[in-house]
Specification:
The protein is of the alpha+beta class and about 120 residues long. The protein contains one helix and eight strands.
């Protein structure tokens, strides 16, 4: 009976260990973007908002919007939302019709860094 009990304890311990490994390897993933990746908008948005699966470190996370020539066109105020640390946003001026690229860097509170980019189009 003690061998069976030892096997059960070992199996249970292994499961907890595996669950810890899965939890520890989680990274913030981009869940939703406004405007949407690849979106074609009739008018310019006033901001870009990115929603992530994990809470972000504000000092280490960023978002930049560039025009087709690569020039930064956002207002330079990209920040993680203080009320919902899974959200980062940046304000935009009135943008002309064209293609714009959103570049982001997200560092989750467990310090894992992920980066990405996507484009959206205005009035074309």
């Amino acid at each position: 009976m003690s061998t069976l009990r030892s096997a059960a304890v070992l199996t249970g311990s292994s499961l907890f260990l595996l669950m810890g490994i899965v939890t520890a390897s989680a990274h913030a993933q981009l869940v939703r973007a406004e405007p949407a990746a690849g979106g074609n908008l009739g008018k310019a948005p006033s901001e870009v908002t990115l929603h992530f699966s994990e809470r972000l470190e504000g000092a280490l996370s960023s978002v930049v919007v560039r025009d087709a020539a690569g020039k930064q066109v956002d207002k330079g105020n990209g920040t993680v939302d203080k009320k919902d640390r899974k959200v980062i946003r940046v304000s935009l001026p009135d943008l002309e019709p064209g293609v714009y690229k959103v570049e982001w860097r997200a560092v989750s509170t467990d310090t894992h860094k992920v980066t990405g980019d996507f484009t959206f189009k205005i009035g074309e």
